[in-house]
Amino acid sequence: MSTPEIPNAIDAKVREAALSPRRLFANIEDRLRESERIFREELASPVRIVDEIGRFVGDAGGKRVRPALHLLASRMLGYAGPHDVTLAAVLEYIHSATLIHDDIIDEAATRRGRPSVNYRWPNPVSVLFGDFLYAQAMRLALRAESLAVMDTLANVTLRMVEGELLQTRYVGRLDLTLDEYFDLVERKTSGLFAGCCVLAGHLVRADDERMRALETYGRNLGTAFQCVDDVLDVVGDPSRLGKPAGADLLEGKATLPYLLWLRDDSDGRRRTRLERIVRKPEAEGSEAVRRELREAMDRDGAIDAARERARRAAGEARDALRLFPRNEARESLESLPDLLMARDR
User: Domain for residue 26, yes or no?
Assistant: First the structure.
């Protein structure tokens, strides 16, 4: 991973974390490998088209942040049973299903620099494969023999679907409040991060106080992750992101940097400018226009303000870990917000 541009307010610890994600995951490396094995193995199917798409999805790779988060939380809590690796695969199935459905809704042609599933196969097939992943996730989760685990996964999945439905109502709206934006983030992103940690708590039957701390850590980590995602959509390198810069705005999504930029818009010129791009993305959304817009947002402080929101959430995530005994896994979890803050894709 190359060293991305990092705000001056983040110290050298972040640069170290950005350069060595393997160091953070070293104490769960064997569990991650086993989770990946389960993920790939359970994608196999005697139905040829399911098996074909499964191999395509399995080969896509990915950061596997959510499985790693669950495994680190389980290790921090001292869990020593077999179910953490299975649930890590379950979480990646749910995440993968969500990405497939997102791409269908957004009519995306690429994902992580490769053709998206819906680009390779017709939309009805892609929808059904996403459903297959959700069903497979729930089937595997039953191995934990825990109603609390199933309840958490069901609630997380329901809120993610609610978030997708809400987002269809928000497309093209530039008047979203920050409360509406962060509610959407909680449903679509932060809730799954929180679920990764809460599931670890269920495995060890943690008390209420520790469960709240795990949920707080995961939710704030997910919020920081999404804020950084929004910033990267504006300032990131398309070759690293695997999608065009400014893709969210071209799809009519008003993400955090745009919403913060519009807060100081006394004459309405900024809103008018963005509305032209949303209404006519092909005509108004050229690279030159987006570069000029990016420079204006940077000059006016919207990019830094969005980064500050990410830093604040990252700090609240770290604070939530104070309740737990210090061990190697907790130290990795404390550094994980820095790693996510410093990413460039």
Answer: yes
- How would you class 50 by CB atoms within 10 Å of its CB: exposed for 0-12, middle for 13-18, buried for 19 or more? middle
Instruction: In whole angstroms, give the CA distance from residue 176 to residue 170.
Output: 8
What range does the domain containing 127 cover?
12-341
Residues 4-62: tens digit of each pLDDT: 333 333 344 444 444 466 788 889 999 999 999 999 999 999 999 999 999 999 988 77
Per-residue confidence (pLDDT) for residue 287, from 0 to 100: 77
Angle of CA points 302, 303, 306, to nearest 5°: 85
At residue 151, φ and ψ (nearest 5 deg) are -65, -45
What percent of the chain shows pLDDT beyond 70?
Answer: 91
At residue 47, the 3 state secondary structure works out as coil
Identify the CATH number of the domain in which residue 187 sits: 1.10.600.10
Q: Report the candidate in 190, 217, 188, 186 with the shortest Cα–Cα distance to residue 201.
A: 217
Domain count, the chain: 1
Rounded to whole angstroms, the Cα distance separating 236 from 62 reads: 18
Do the domain assignments include residue 2? no
